[in-house]
C-alpha cells in the first residue's frame, strides 16, 4: 500500500471519503498522517475517529514557510510517507515541500480549472453565472491551484440554489478523488 499524508484545513470530508475507500479495500493506500494548519479544524476530530495521527501546526509560530515545511517534512519522513494528498489545505505549498516530494503532491479543487482558482471557487463560479462547473484533481506546483491536470468531472449548476450545487460538487469530489488516486497509485 502507498503511504500517504492528507493535508487539510477544514471539515475534512475528502479525507474521510479517502479513508473510507481505503477501508472498503478500493484504494491501496494507508493514511499515515493528517497534517493541518488549523488545530481546531473538524478534520482533527475525524482523524481521531479513525485513529490516524495528526500533526497540527500554526504558521504564526514559525518565522517562515520554509521553517514549518521543514518541520512537516521531518514528520512525513518519520512515517515513511510517499505521497501528499491535499484536501482543502488552504496554504500555498512552498519550494521546500515541492523539492522534497517532486510530482508526489496532488490537490483537489472545486471548479473546472483553470477557471476560478483560489478561495470559494464554488461561490466564484455561481457569481459568474456559469451553467456548468465541476471538480479538478491536479499535480501541485508553486502556483495557486495550477499544475498538470490529472482528472476533471462536470456538474450542472442548480439555478438559484447554491447549497444544492455545493452538495453535488462535494459528492463528486469524493468520488473523483478516490478514483484518481486509485489510478495514480496503480500506474
Ligand atoms: C473542498 O471543496 C476542496 O476542493 C476545497 O476545499 C474543500 C475542502 O472540503 N479546496 C480548495 O478550494 C483548494 N483551493 P473538505 O475539508 O470537506 O474536504
Evaluate the radius of gyration. 16 Å
The percentage of residues in β strands lies in 15-25%
Q: Write down the secondary-structure element order.
A: EHEHEHEHEHEEH
Q: Please bin the fraction of helical residues.
A: 25-40%
Mean pLDDT figure:
97
Bound molecules: glycinamide ribonucleotide
GO molecular function: phosphoribosylglycinamide formyltransferase activity
Protein name: Phosphoribosylglycinamide formyltransferase
Function: Catalyzes the transfer of a formyl group from 10-formyltetrahydrofolate to 5-phospho-ribosyl-glycinamide (GAR), producing 5-phospho-ribosyl-N-formylglycinamide (FGAR) and tetrahydrofolate.
Family: Belongs to the GART family.
Task: Provide a compact summary of the structure.
The protein is an alpha/beta fold. It contains six helices and seven strands. The site of glycinamide ribonucleotide (GAR) has 14 residues, from helix 1 and strand 5.
Q: In terms of topology, how is this protein built?
A:
Elements: E1 2-7, H1 13-23, E2 29-36, H2 42-49, E3 54-56, H3 65-78, E4 83-86, H4 95-100, E5 105-109, H5 121-128, E6 132-139, E7 149-156, H6 162-186
Parallel strand pairs: 1-2, 1-4, 2-3, 4-5
Antiparallel strand pairs: 5-6, 6-7
Helix pairs in contact: 1-6
Bound molecules: glycinamide ribonucleotide.
